[in-house]
UniProtKB/TrEMBL annotation:
Pfam (any one): NIR_SIR
GO-annotated molecular function: 4 iron, 4 sulfur cluster binding; heme binding; metal ion binding; oxidoreductase activity
Gene3D superfamilies: 3.90.480.20, Sulfite Reductase Hemoprotein, domain 1
Stated family: Belongs to the nitrite and sulfite reductase 4Fe-4S domain family.
Species whose genome carries this gene: Aliarcobacter cryaerophilus
Keyword Acyltransferase tagged: no
UniProt protein name: Sulfite reductase
Keywords associated with the record: 4Fe-4S, Heme, Iron, Iron-sulfur, Metal-binding, Oxidoreductase
Ranges where the Nitrite/sulphite reductase 4Fe-4S domain occurs: 127-263
Amino acid sequence: MSININIEKLKKDITSEDILASLFYYAVFGEKISQNDLERFKWHGIYAKDEKQTSFSLKIPLNLGELNLSQLESILNILETFSLLKISFKDGQKIEFDSLNLRDIPEIFNILNKVGLSSFFESSHSIKKVLTCPVNGLDTTQIFDVEDLAKKLNESFVENKNFFNLPNKLQFAISGYREGCDAGFTPDVSFNAFKNSKDKIVFDLKILDKVVAQISSSQIIKTARVIASVYRDFGNREKSNNFKEFIKEFTLDSFCDILSSNLDIKIDNNQEIKILKEPKKPRMGINKSSKDGYSFIGLKSIKKEFAKDDLKNIIENMKKYSATKLKITHKSNIIILDVPSQNSDNLVNSLKNRGLVLE
């Protein structure tokens, strides 16, 4: 039976703390979850897998797609402690636990929080974790290392209560390549680095697929804040329109006029800038890192999911060959970031039987 849920009312009626309190209540007392609370739980990555609510999944967006060894070991601990069969790597740089009992989720939250992982606002009408290229600072062909800027964008907006209640989700992306990074879709707002005619590094500001301005790195956070505020204040909440629909309805001209009046930058949505290259795809295979003596290794994930033994083997071999962290790409492949170059071939060979292969 289809149930109409007033999302705007839900967003106004309850806070993040209230959602967590409701989760703990249902986990302890085992009552059937109301439809409104089921919808709210999705905001924190919790999804009922059946109508009887006997099984749940938990999706966790990763900061810049990264997992270090401590985080991987905590994921393995969760699989072992709660008798789970697998961990899935999902598109959009997320991981997912499946077949969970609701009563176990609060303790899983505690384990994740201790290593800096959180599912909060995974699917709400808020600003999503920024999309960026997996090999920032490592790829020698990159124009500019945007890793610190990406972190600042996340720190400024993700879980910021001023931007919890948008008409729909808002996705920023930032790239050290002018063509941007291949996320499999067009982000709402992109900041892409390039060198201008004065050999100075600046950023194209793209609204959807249209370049409307060039800005400096110091202007990115303020520009993003103004864009998010305009969408929050002027977006059509009766339709819960996404950002693309908002721009179409509001018009790009009107949107750019507001940006111009609030920012000390030149906005020109009529400029014709042709970016000839396709978005930059993650570098697969063994690649020389900009960090001397190291390589980064892009591996195709055949199944996109890993059983306990698979994950344990990955962790053991990363330790054996002195690698400490990896990133999940936007299409759920894996890049191991910091492998001593003399160990690269051995690490690749050790992971072949775990569903990770060179393309």
